[in-house]
């Protein structure tokens, strides 16, 4: 018996050792695999910013921005959203401004904390220059390669238009973009930035100093640190001309002294719109103004703001200056050239004393408001989250830590006492919930610029989405009204209709002084890169009557709360009567 017990004890000891060995081997293998797939990257030489640390993430995490909370938890809404979520219910208004049915979404929103996984900054090391002479500039890049040039970021030569794409930038993409906008030269820098213009930079550099590989085209050079790979795109302009957009802005009363108002002019018999537009594009002006045989080029200014258009009939005889209402009116066209008076942006040189939030419900136009604020103030905006798609298109504040205080304000969709009280003040952007829900549903299922399919709209995802998110729209506003220290309420509809007055209010709230011409430039570039093209018409009504009854009750509650705090109520256009 003792012998059998001894054998059993010996076997168990061996088993324990074997299990320990296998466990250790498993952990070591897992650690090696993790180290192989992720590595710490320190980005060096970033212009105007300090070096940042970032971790690579698997492909599946690329482009993670605002993650829908229900994707992180049970796909069915939890009990904290609304009681009895199987059917739409009307809320019980048992409290004045914070009814029980509006429960905070912060338990879910906390999972949206900023992720420092910057896939897009990886592979930033310069290309090896050992044996490097000139990397290929093959015939697939149809323009003529002019060489490598140095460029001062404070005063650029190629400043006609600026584009960013930190994932897919190629030489051809940059060339085509500049050609379509009537520019002669395309310059690439940092592997991901594209600049257009009609003048070559003054200072040439050594060819090997342009050593950054294009983010979207391996083996091709896209400039370097403060270096531009410049191409002449004249060969492309004939083909691109067919795709150029010259937009008729309307008939306007001509300023008293046109030569003082507009910096360039041309007088020519048989002048056409195309001739004037080409001339102004060549001069890098966004406006082409025609009055008879006279062509003027310039920008919207205080003298000529393009706010009060006249009856088009007054310009009907504009081919002859004397017959166009005695030369008092002119036709105005938008050329393909970008207005660059407000495109320069940077981080704050010193940390801001006030910590300002740009808060909104998802789908309420936060990205558009950031575009307007950045171009009006000249400073980047930050974000409580990291959205790779926004960062790739030039919102460089996305990768800056939201507490850095190097940005003019910080985007957030958070609500709740703790999340709100850490900000000193906030711009609270509010939009029609019907429009917001549709916009966020489209973003969730088709990205920033796409549209959800009809099949998705007709699936159970849509009613579940409305159940969950409609209450969040209301609770978000009510929480900021309750806990916000200093608020500026901005209604999306008012900002869209009266852009300059409302934008001026926002800029003054941020303690920034801007010129009228800069605000007019913002108005001239009002859409930005994330405006959906047109409104995709659905052949059915997505909101059922039950949904409308629920949302309308939320609207009335928010409207009452705003007025109770002496703010302007919600726009009458969508408040139920």
TrEMBL record:
Q: Where is the WSC domain?
A: 142-234, 245-342
Q: Which domain of life is it from?
A: Eukaryota
The record's annotation in Gene3D superfamilies points to:
P-loop containing nucleotide triphosphate hydrolases
The molecular function GO annotations come to: sulfotransferase activity
Record's keyword terms, sorted = Repeat
Q: Which Pfam families match?
A: Sulfotransfer_1, WSC
Spell out the family assignment given in the record's similarity comment: Belongs to the WSCD family.
Q: What is this protein called?
A: WSCD1 protein
Q: What is the lineage of its organism?
A: Eukaryota, Metazoa, Chordata, Craniata, Vertebrata
């Amino acid at each position: 018996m003792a012998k059998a017990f001894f054998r059993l004890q010996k076997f168990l000891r061996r088993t324990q050792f074997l299990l320990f060995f296998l466990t250790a081997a498993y952990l070591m293998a897992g650690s090696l695999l993790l180290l192989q797939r992720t590595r710490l990257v320190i980005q060096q030489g970033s212009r105007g910013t300090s070096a940042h640390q970032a971790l690579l993430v698997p492909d599946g995490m690329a482009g993670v921005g605002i993650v829908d909370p229900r994707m992180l938890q049970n796909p069915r809404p939890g009990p904290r959203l609304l009681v009895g979520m199987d059917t739409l219910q009307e809320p019980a208004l048992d409290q004045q401004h914070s009814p029980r049915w509006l429960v905070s979404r912060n338990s879910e929103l906390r999972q949206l904390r900023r992720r420092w996984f910057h896939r897009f900054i990886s592979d930033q090391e310069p290309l090896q220059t050992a044996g490097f002479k000139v990397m290929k500039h093959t015939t697939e890049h149809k323009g003529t390669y002019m060489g490598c040039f140095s460029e001062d970021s404070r005063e650029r030569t190629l400043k006609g238009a600026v584009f960013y794409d930190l994932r897919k930038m190629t030489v051809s993409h940059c060339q085509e973009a500049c050609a379509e906008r009537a520019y002669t030269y395309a310059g690439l820098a940092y592997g991901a930035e594209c600049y257009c213009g009609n003048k070559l930079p003054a200072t040439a550099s050594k060819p090997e100093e342009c050593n950054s590989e294009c983010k979207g085209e391996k083996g091709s050079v896209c400039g370097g640190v403060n270096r531009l790979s410049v191409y002449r795109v004249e060969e492309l302009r004939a083909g691109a001309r067919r795709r150029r957009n010259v937009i008729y802005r309307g008939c306007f009363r001509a300023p008293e002294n046109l030569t003082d108002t507009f910096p360039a002019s041309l007088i020519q018999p048989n002048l056409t719109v195309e001739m004037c537009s080409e001339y102004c594009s060549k001069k890098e002006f966004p406006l082409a103004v025609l009055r008879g045989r006279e062509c003027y080029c310039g920008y919207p200014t205080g003298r000529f703001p393009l706010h009060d258009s006249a009856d088009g009939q007054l310009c009907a005889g504009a081919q002859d200056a004397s017959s166009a209402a005695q030369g008092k009116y002119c036709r105005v066209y938008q050329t393909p050239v970008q207005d660059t008076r407000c495109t320069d942006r940077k981080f704050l040189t010193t940390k801001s004393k006030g910590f300002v939030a740009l808060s909104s419900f998802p789908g309420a136009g936060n990205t558009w408001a950031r575009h307007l604020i950045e171009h009006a103030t000249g400073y980047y905006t930050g974000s409580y989250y990291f959205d790779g798609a926004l960062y790739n298109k030039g919102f460089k504040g996305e990768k800056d830590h939201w507490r850095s205080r190097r940005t003019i304000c910080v985007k957030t969709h958070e609500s709740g006492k703790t999340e709100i009280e850490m900000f000193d003040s906030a711009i609270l952007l509010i939009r029609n919930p019907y429009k917001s829900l549709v916009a966020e549903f489209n973003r969730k299922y088709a990205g920033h610029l796409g549209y959800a399919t009809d099949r998705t709209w007709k699936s159970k995802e849509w009613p579940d989405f409305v159940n969950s998110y409609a209450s969040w729209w209301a609770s978000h506003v009510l929480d900021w009204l309750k806990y916000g220290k200093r608020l500026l309420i901005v209604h999306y509809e008012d900002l869209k209709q009266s852009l300059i007055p409302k934008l001026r209010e926002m800029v003054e709230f941020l303690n920034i002084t801007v010129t009228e011409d800069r605000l007019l430039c913002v108005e001239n570039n009002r859409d930005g890169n994330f405006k959906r093209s047109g409104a995709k018409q659905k052949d059915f009504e997505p909101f059922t009557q039950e949904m409308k009854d629920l949302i309308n009750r939320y609207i009335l509650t928010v409207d009452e709360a705003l007025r109770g705090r002496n703010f302007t109520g919600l726009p009458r256009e969508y408040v139920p009567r």
